[in-house]
Amino acid sequence: GLSARILNAFRTARAATASDLAGLLGHDLEAVEGALDQLCDTGYLAMTRDEDNPEAVYALVSAA
């Protein structure tokens, strides 16, 4: 599904915003944001915010 496609996108990208992923994957922003929230809740992705850019940035959680 969409979550798997998002995780695959992070094989080549270090970090991305929801709008970046929506454009890349051809899905609407709301669907991508829902999938990103779910991936954060399950521990696959982490979300950060930059003071200069209000849009959240997502990245894979590093394996410790």
Outline the structure in words.
By secondary structure, this protein is α+β, with helices and mostly antiparallel strands. A three-stranded antiparallel sheet has the order 1-3-2. A hairpin with a 2-residue loop joins strand 2 and strand 3. It is globular, with a radius of gyration of 11 Å. It starts with a helix and ends with a strand.
Average pLDDT score: 92
End-to-end Cα distance: 27 Å
Shape: globular
Number of strands: 3
Radius of gyration: 11 Å
How helical, in percent, are the residues? 40-55%
Secondary structure category: alpha+beta
Main β-sheet description: 3 strands, antiparallel
Order of helices and strands: HEHHEE
User: How do the strands of the widest beta sheet line up side by side?
Assistant: 1-3-2
Q: Indicate the low-confidence ranges by residue numbers.
A: none
* Beta content: 25-35%
DSSP summary: helix tally: 3
Structure summarized in a few sentences:
The protein is an alpha+beta fold. It is built from three helices and three strands; from the N terminus they run αβααββ.
